Amino acid sequence: MPKVKRSRRKPPPDGWDLIEPTLDEFDLKMREGEAKPHEGMRKIESLWPISRVHSQRSRYIYDLFYRRRAISRELYEYCLKERIADANLIAKWKKMGYEKLFCLTCIQTQNTSFLTNCICRVPKSKLEEGKHIQCVNCGCRGCSG
């Protein structure tokens, strides 16, 4: 089974053995997403499974530390330092209104036509009834709540 990439300078802190199997599963899903054939898809669509796993892995670390308080601060900071979890995405999740944010490209205004947020950031109550939206950048179906 593939291991999570981490530096060999310092051994992981206590509690690593509890989260390592789950992180290995995420790594396996990431490899499957990379190896998945993407013929007939747009170029950006082939990256959607990878961004989904990246978000799930970061959410797992976030939930363990902030919601369930199951890991220590030392282990949390180790995961951020080793880039197992995305520190910028977690920082946004701590802010009000961004709790369900899927990826950082949804809030970047440089990639949109009118320098606004992505369509998935519009609340579902403000959209037409029965209209299904999907983000062009990451494939999420609405991360505004």
Describe the structure.
This protein has helices spanning 16-35, 48-67, 73-81, 87-93. It has 145 residues and is mostly helical. The chain folds into 2 domains: 10-94; 97-145, no CATH class. α1 runs antiparallel to α2 (48-67). The chain starts with 15 loop residues before the first helix and ends in a 52-residue tail after the last helix. Its main location: nucleus. This is Protein BUD31 homolog. It is found in: Nucleus. Keywords: Nucleus.
Low-confidence spans: none
Overall radius of gyration:
17 Å
The overall strand count is 0
Q: Tell me the domain tally.
A: 2
Q: Beta-sheet strand percentage? A: under 5%
Helical content class: 25-40%
Order of helices and strands: HHHH
Helices, by number, come to 4
- Derived structural class: mainly alpha
Largest sheet: none
Average pLDDT for all residues: 88
**Shape annotation:** globular
Ends apart, CA distance between termini:
36 Å
Keywords summarizing the entry:
2 domains; 145 residues; 4 helices; mainly alpha; single chain; Protein BUD31 homolog; BUD31
Brief rundown of the structure:
With 145 residues, the protein is mainly α. The chain has helices at 16-35, 48-67, 73-81, 87-93. The radius of gyration is 17 Å and the shape is globular.
Layout of helices and strands, plus pairs?
Elements: H1 16-35, H2 48-67, H3 73-81, H4 87-93
